[in-house]
Each structure stands twice: as C-alpha cells, then as structure tokens.
Inverse folding.
C-alpha cells in the first residue's frame, strides 16, 4: 500500500486503481464496532486505541499520505487525498482525532521551521505521539499576541512561567507547541518565541476541562519555573509570531477535506432518517434538506478550489477564513435540524465519556459540540474581520 500511495497518478484509471486499493484495505482493516465502544472507554484506552490505529494506518501508507516523502509521507496529490477521505467515510473508519494537532499543526511547524534534530520528532508522530498547543491564555484568545506567559533565558535553558487554556488533547499529550513572551519591551507581536515543550517536564501541571458533552478534550496547562532546553526553541528568538502563522494557517486547511466528507455523511443520515420517519413528506422539511445538500456541495467546490491553489503553490490568503466560517455555520444548522426532526430520541444523553467525531449522529451532542467551531481556531467574529479586511478591502477595525 505504501508503494502504491507514493506514485503520482496522471490518469483517471490510475485514480480508480488507487481508490480500489484503498477501499480494499479499509474493508479488511477498519476496527469493527469502534464507534459503539470508544465513546464510552476510559481515557487511557482511547489514547492507546488512536496510537495503535495511527501505526496501522502508517504501515499502509494512509496516515500521512499528503506529507512529503522525505518526512515519511507519500506526497499524495490533492485528488488522492480527496479519494482517501471519501473512502474513509464510506468505510466508517476512525480518524486519528487525538493526533489531529500532531499530524497537522505540529508537523507543519517542524517541517518548515524545525532544525534537523527537532524534525526527528516527526518519527514519534508517525508512531502515535500526541501533541497539543500552548497558545491561548485566559486573557489572550482571539487577541493571541497579548499572551503573558514569560520565557527567560538562563544559560542553556529558558525558564517559563504562565498559564495556557483550551489546549486540545493537553491531557494526553507527550509534547506541546508553546508560545511565550521572550521580550517584554518589544511590540507585542515581535517579542514572542515558540518552543517544543515536553509535557512531562517538572513544573507542568495539566488540568482537564470537562465540556458540556461530558468529554475532556481541552485542558488548562500551568507552567511554574519550567526549564526548556534552548535547543527546543523553534526558529529564532522573538520570531514565534511569524512561525505560529504556519500552525494557524495549517489549522484552516488540513482538516477541510475530512470535514467536507463529514458534512456529506450528515446530510445522508438526515435524508435516510427523514424518509424513515416521514419527515420528508413535509414540503418545508424537504426544502431544508435540499438547501443543506446544495450548501454542502458548494462548500466542497470552494474547498476543492482552495486545495487546487495550494497544490499549485499559490497562497489562498483569507480563503481559509471563508471555509472555516462556512463550515461552522452549516454544521450548526445541520445538527440543529437533526435535533428538531428526530424527536425525543435526539434528546437522550448517551453518557459518552469521549467525543470521537463532530458528526457522530448523536444529534444533541453534535449540536452542542458544533458551537466549539465558532470559537476554536479563531472566533467567527475574527473570521468575519479577516474576510472583510483582506478579501473585501473594508477599512481595518479601529484599535
């Protein structure tokens, strides 16, 4: 499978072969019944499951098919990535969600800005190492450059003190990307550095944040005199803000193919349930379902255009903000419609311990969780500002 993925198809027949091979492997290797058991498993069991599944996917060349070959990927084309996500959805195969930051944000930062020694940590990611981000703080979320966590150079180490919040997968992470202020006198965007943080370091305390769904995806991270070796500084000192843009832009694009397929899956579930329950007999409901199908198709076309620009080496600019805003709005309305049209069954709390997907089909929990997309990765208000200023040319918001 790895050898097959490494090839660059030039014709539709090559892509058909690729799809057939991926489909065959997923049919043979997708864990049976995982979506029924995993949401109720203990934290350690879930983390172990995703680590093992990541290794299994990587052994087949499916975990990081899009990575450059020199880093262990297959250099898959955009067309191959689309096929892979379509077939993952078709097979109901688990995505390695606990590795989302590892495979996207952390990997992109290490590949582009890491030293050769730092890039060796990519091997750990391929083996299932979980990463988190230490970016947001209680007083620095959307205005991330106002962060107050301090890193003071002492010989061969930096001594770090501060607090981070909303660190996805922080409870399970082995490593973290950490932003800290290294020059208090510099303008706020210019005095920040990025570090690789060993989450087991003395002085690191992780406290889980239990969400409305009952899961503990997020965590607070308290840093008290944490000593980070100077060779774990990524890039130059005080250049962390520019480096962070790699991570944040990756967050806009890396998941969009998967999310596109998730929306299509939700529409298919709604159509099936509406036909079974008789909801589709109502003209207003049929119109709403048709509207959802059309919006998801348009989202997919926009996503394809952005991915095509990336494949050609172009910078899509603020298009990622459009996709992120569009996805969050469709997801909210889709899940709300699922709650409204599936009766009392949609309101029963299944007592899940873990959120395995944004589109699980548990309509109430999916709807509650959909609101995180209006906040995480930049609030909807921030996305609208970016779209207005960078795409529409509107005046910048007063400071």
């Amino acid at each position: 499978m790895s050898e097959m993925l490494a090839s660059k198809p030039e014709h539709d027949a090559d892509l058909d072969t690729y799809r057939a091979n991926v489909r065959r492997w997923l049919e043979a290797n997708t864990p049976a019944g995982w979506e029924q058991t995993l949401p109720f498993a203990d934290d350690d069991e879930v983390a172990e499951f995703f680590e093992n599944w990541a290794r299994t996917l990587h052994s087949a060349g499916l975990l990081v098919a899009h990575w450059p070959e020199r880093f262990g990927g297959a250099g898959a084309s955009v067309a191959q990535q689309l096929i892979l996500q379509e077939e993952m959805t078709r097979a109901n195969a688990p995505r390695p969600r606990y590795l989302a930051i590892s495979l996207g944000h952390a990997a992109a930062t290490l590949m582009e800005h890491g030293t050769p020694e730092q890039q060796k940590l990519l091997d750990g990611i391929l083996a299932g190492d979980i990463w988190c981000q230490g970016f947001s703080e209680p007083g620095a979320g959307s205005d991330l450059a106002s962060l107050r966590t301090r890193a003071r150079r002492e010989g061969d180490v930096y001594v770090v003190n501060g607090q981070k919040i909303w660190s996805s997968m922080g409870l399970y992470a082995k490593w973290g990307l950490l932003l800290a202020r290294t020059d208090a006198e510099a303008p706020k965007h210019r005095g920040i550095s990025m570090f690789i943080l060993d989450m087991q370091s003395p002085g690191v305390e992780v406290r889980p944040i239990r969400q409305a769904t009952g899961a503990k995806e997020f965590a607070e991270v308290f840093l008290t005199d944490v000593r980070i070796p100077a060779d774990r500084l990524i890039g130059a000192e005080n250049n962390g803000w520019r480096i962070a843009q790699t991570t944040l832009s990756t967050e806009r694009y890396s998941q969009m193919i998967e999310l596109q397929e998730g929306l299509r899956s939700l529409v298919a579930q709604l159509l099936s349930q509406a036909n079974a329950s008789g909801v589709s007999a109502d003209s207003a409901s049929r119109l709403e379902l048709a509207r959802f199908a059309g919006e998801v198709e348009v989202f997919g076309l926009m996503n394809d255009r952005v991915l095509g620009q990336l494949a050609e080496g172009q910078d899509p600019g603020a298009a990622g903000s459009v996709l992120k805003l569009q996805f969050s709005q469709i997801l909210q309305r889709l899940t709300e419609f699922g709650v409204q049209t599936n009766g009392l069954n949609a309101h029963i709390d299944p007592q899940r311990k873990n959120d395995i997907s944004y589109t699980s089909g548990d309509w109430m929990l999916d709807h509650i969780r959909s609101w995180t997309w209006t906040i995480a990765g930049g609030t909807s208000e921030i996305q609208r500002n970016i779209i207005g200023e960078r795409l529409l040319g509107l005046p910048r918001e007063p400071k």
About this structure: The first helix runs from residue 2 to 6. The radius of gyration is 21 Å.
